[in-house]
Amino acid sequence: MNAIAAPAHFCWDAPSDLKVSPTMTSYQDLFAIGQTFDAFVEHGLPAEISAVREIQLKLATADTLPPATRQRLGAVHQRFHLLVAGEMWCPDCQINVTVMDDLQRTQPNIDLAVITKARAEDALKQPLALERISIPFVLVLDEAFQPVGRFIERPQAVIDGGDALKPAYRAGDYLESTVKDLLDIFEASRPQK
Fold first, then answer.
1. What distance in Å separates the CA atoms of residue 44 and residue 93, rounded to the nearest whole number?
2. Per-residue pLDDT reduced to its tens digit, 29-42
3. CATH number of the domain enclosing 44
4. Is residue 1 part of a domain?
5. C-alpha–C-alpha distance, residues 109 and 185, integer Å
6. Cα separation of 185 and 113, whole Å?
7. Which of 151, 152, 144, 33 is closest to 80 using CA atoms?
8. Residue 16: phi, psi to the nearest 5?
9. CA-CA-CA-CA torsion for 33, 140, 87, 42, nearest 10 degrees?
10. pTM of the entire predicted model
11. Structural domain includes residue 78
12. Measured in whole angstroms, how far is the alpha carbon of residue 85 from the centre of its chain?
Protein backbone atom coordinates (compact mmCIF):
# COMPACT_ATOMS: atom_id res chain seq x y z
CA MET A 1 0.00 0.00 0.00
CA ASN A 2 1.39 3.38 -0.99
CA ALA A 3 1.09 6.04 1.66
CA ILE A 4 0.54 9.57 0.50
CA ALA A 5 2.50 12.02 2.51
CA ALA A 6 1.31 15.54 3.00
CA PRO A 7 3.63 18.19 1.58
CA ALA A 8 5.96 19.70 4.15
CA HIS A 9 4.16 23.08 4.02
CA PHE A 10 0.75 21.51 4.74
CA CYS A 11 -0.38 21.57 8.36
CA TRP A 12 -3.17 19.26 9.53
CA ASP A 13 -3.84 21.07 12.81
CA ALA A 14 -3.42 24.80 12.89
CA PRO A 15 -2.13 26.19 16.17
CA SER A 16 -4.96 27.55 18.32
CA ASP A 17 -3.78 31.14 17.95
CA LEU A 18 -4.17 30.89 14.15
CA LYS A 19 -7.75 29.60 14.04
CA VAL A 20 -9.80 31.52 11.55
CA SER A 21 -13.42 32.30 12.32
CA PRO A 22 -15.82 31.19 9.61
CA THR A 23 -16.94 33.86 7.21
CA MET A 24 -20.33 35.21 8.12
CA THR A 25 -23.00 34.90 5.48
CA SER A 26 -24.36 38.33 4.64
CA TYR A 27 -27.93 39.17 5.58
CA GLN A 28 -28.60 39.81 1.91
CA ASP A 29 -27.38 36.31 0.99
CA LEU A 30 -29.54 34.78 3.72
CA PHE A 31 -32.52 36.74 2.45
CA ALA A 32 -31.83 35.59 -1.12
CA ILE A 33 -31.89 31.90 -0.17
CA GLY A 34 -34.95 32.25 2.05
CA GLN A 35 -38.32 30.86 1.06
CA THR A 36 -41.35 32.86 0.10
CA PHE A 37 -44.21 32.77 2.56
CA ASP A 38 -46.24 30.48 0.30
CA ALA A 39 -43.35 28.00 -0.02
CA PHE A 40 -42.90 28.11 3.76
CA VAL A 41 -46.58 27.30 4.34
CA GLU A 42 -46.50 24.42 1.83
CA HIS A 43 -44.12 22.57 4.17
CA GLY A 44 -46.70 22.42 6.94
CA LEU A 45 -49.00 19.63 8.00
CA PRO A 46 -52.72 20.08 7.18
CA ALA A 47 -53.58 21.36 10.68
CA GLU A 48 -50.70 23.88 10.54
CA ILE A 49 -51.76 25.12 7.11
CA SER A 50 -55.33 25.39 8.40
CA ALA A 51 -54.14 27.56 11.32
CA VAL A 52 -52.42 29.90 8.84
CA ARG A 53 -55.59 30.09 6.72
CA GLU A 54 -57.62 31.03 9.81
CA ILE A 55 -55.24 33.92 10.56
CA GLN A 56 -55.41 35.01 6.91
CA LEU A 57 -59.21 35.11 7.13
CA LYS A 58 -59.04 37.21 10.30
CA LEU A 59 -56.61 39.61 8.60
CA ALA A 60 -58.99 39.94 5.65
CA THR A 61 -61.75 41.41 7.84
CA ALA A 62 -61.89 45.18 7.81
CA ASP A 63 -61.88 45.61 11.59
CA THR A 64 -58.68 43.61 12.33
CA LEU A 65 -56.50 46.64 11.65
CA PRO A 66 -58.10 49.95 12.59
CA PRO A 67 -57.74 52.96 10.28
CA ALA A 68 -54.96 54.53 12.38
CA THR A 69 -52.80 51.40 12.04
CA ARG A 70 -53.56 51.16 8.31
CA GLN A 71 -52.55 54.81 7.96
CA ARG A 72 -49.24 54.15 9.71
CA LEU A 73 -48.64 51.19 7.43
CA GLY A 74 -49.40 53.30 4.36
CA ALA A 75 -46.87 55.89 5.54
CA VAL A 76 -43.94 53.44 5.34
CA HIS A 77 -41.82 54.97 2.57
CA GLN A 78 -38.51 53.24 3.25
CA ARG A 79 -37.75 49.73 2.01
CA PHE A 80 -37.62 46.97 4.64
CA HIS A 81 -36.71 43.31 4.37
CA LEU A 82 -37.99 40.91 7.03
CA LEU A 83 -35.53 38.03 7.41
CA VAL A 84 -37.63 35.49 9.28
CA ALA A 85 -36.36 32.36 11.03
CA GLY A 86 -39.34 30.12 11.45
CA GLU A 87 -40.86 26.66 11.27
CA MET A 88 -44.42 25.73 10.32
CA TRP A 89 -44.87 23.52 13.40
CA CYS A 90 -44.52 26.60 15.61
CA PRO A 91 -47.86 28.23 16.58
CA ASP A 92 -46.16 31.63 17.04
CA CYS A 93 -44.85 31.36 13.47
CA GLN A 94 -48.26 30.39 12.15
CA ILE A 95 -49.66 33.58 13.67
CA ASN A 96 -46.93 36.18 13.32
CA VAL A 97 -45.31 35.17 10.03
CA THR A 98 -48.81 35.21 8.52
CA VAL A 99 -49.23 38.77 9.79
CA MET A 100 -45.88 39.69 8.22
CA ASP A 101 -46.97 38.17 4.93
CA ASP A 102 -50.08 40.34 5.07
CA LEU A 103 -47.83 43.37 5.62
CA GLN A 104 -45.77 42.59 2.53
CA ARG A 105 -48.91 42.08 0.45
CA THR A 106 -50.38 45.36 1.70
CA GLN A 107 -47.25 47.52 1.71
CA PRO A 108 -44.98 47.22 -1.37
CA ASN A 109 -41.97 48.58 0.55
CA ILE A 110 -41.89 45.46 2.74
CA ASP A 111 -40.82 41.99 1.71
CA LEU A 112 -39.93 38.84 3.58
CA ALA A 113 -37.96 35.65 3.26
CA VAL A 114 -38.10 32.68 5.62
CA ILE A 115 -35.10 30.61 6.65
CA THR A 116 -35.10 27.62 8.98
CA LYS A 117 -34.35 27.81 12.67
CA ALA A 118 -31.28 25.63 12.08
CA ARG A 119 -29.91 28.01 9.44
CA ALA A 120 -30.54 30.96 11.75
CA GLU A 121 -28.67 29.20 14.55
CA ASP A 122 -25.80 28.60 12.16
CA ALA A 123 -25.70 32.04 10.58
CA LEU A 124 -27.17 34.51 13.08
CA LYS A 125 -26.59 33.27 16.61
CA GLN A 126 -22.90 34.16 16.90
CA PRO A 127 -22.80 37.45 14.94
CA LEU A 128 -25.83 38.77 16.82
CA ALA A 129 -24.53 37.44 20.17
CA LEU A 130 -27.69 35.44 20.81
CA GLU A 131 -27.86 32.69 23.39
CA ARG A 132 -30.57 30.92 21.41
CA ILE A 133 -32.92 31.47 18.50
CA SER A 134 -36.57 31.74 19.58
CA ILE A 135 -38.95 31.56 16.65
CA PRO A 136 -40.18 33.38 14.89
CA PHE A 137 -37.01 35.41 15.01
CA VAL A 138 -37.32 38.35 12.65
CA LEU A 139 -34.37 40.51 11.75
CA VAL A 140 -35.73 43.74 10.29
CA LEU A 141 -33.32 44.95 7.61
CA ASP A 142 -33.24 48.30 5.86
CA GLU A 143 -32.89 48.84 2.13
CA ALA A 144 -29.14 48.12 2.34
CA PHE A 145 -29.81 44.88 4.28
CA GLN A 146 -28.51 46.36 7.53
CA PRO A 147 -30.33 45.43 10.77
CA VAL A 148 -32.60 48.08 12.24
CA GLY A 149 -34.56 45.96 14.72
CA ARG A 150 -35.84 42.57 15.82
CA PHE A 151 -39.16 40.93 16.48
CA ILE A 152 -38.87 37.80 18.60
CA GLU A 153 -41.57 35.20 19.10
CA ARG A 154 -44.60 37.29 20.16
CA PRO A 155 -45.73 40.92 20.19
CA GLN A 156 -44.67 42.95 23.23
CA ALA A 157 -48.28 43.34 24.44
CA VAL A 158 -48.59 39.56 24.70
CA ILE A 159 -45.23 39.20 26.42
CA ASP A 160 -46.18 41.90 28.92
CA GLY A 161 -49.60 40.31 29.52
CA GLY A 162 -48.15 36.90 30.32
CA ASP A 163 -50.01 33.60 30.32
CA ALA A 164 -53.37 35.28 30.87
CA LEU A 165 -53.32 36.62 27.30
CA LYS A 166 -52.17 33.42 25.59
CA PRO A 167 -55.65 32.02 24.77
CA ALA A 168 -56.75 35.30 23.15
CA TYR A 169 -53.38 35.59 21.39
CA ARG A 170 -53.65 32.04 20.03
CA ALA A 171 -57.18 32.88 18.84
CA GLY A 172 -55.76 35.73 16.74
CA ASP A 173 -56.93 38.61 18.93
CA TYR A 174 -53.48 40.31 18.99
CA LEU A 175 -52.68 40.49 15.28
CA GLU A 176 -52.64 44.27 15.38
CA SER A 177 -50.02 44.12 18.16
CA THR A 178 -47.62 42.32 15.82
CA VAL A 179 -48.20 44.99 13.17
CA LYS A 180 -47.69 47.81 15.70
CA ASP A 181 -44.42 46.30 16.96
CA LEU A 182 -43.07 46.17 13.41
CA LEU A 183 -44.33 49.68 12.64
CA ASP A 184 -42.51 50.92 15.73
CA ILE A 185 -39.28 49.43 14.35
CA PHE A 186 -39.86 50.90 10.88
CA GLU A 187 -40.66 54.35 12.28
CA ALA A 188 -37.70 54.35 14.68
CA SER A 189 -35.33 53.74 11.76
CA ARG A 190 -36.45 56.80 9.80
CA PRO A 191 -33.58 59.12 9.01
CA GLN A 192 -33.56 62.09 11.36
CA LYS A 193 -34.26 65.42 9.69
1. 11
2. 999 999 999 999 99
3. 3.40.30.10
4. no
5. 14
6. 18
7. 144
8. -60, -30
9. -60
10. 0.85
11. yes
12. 5
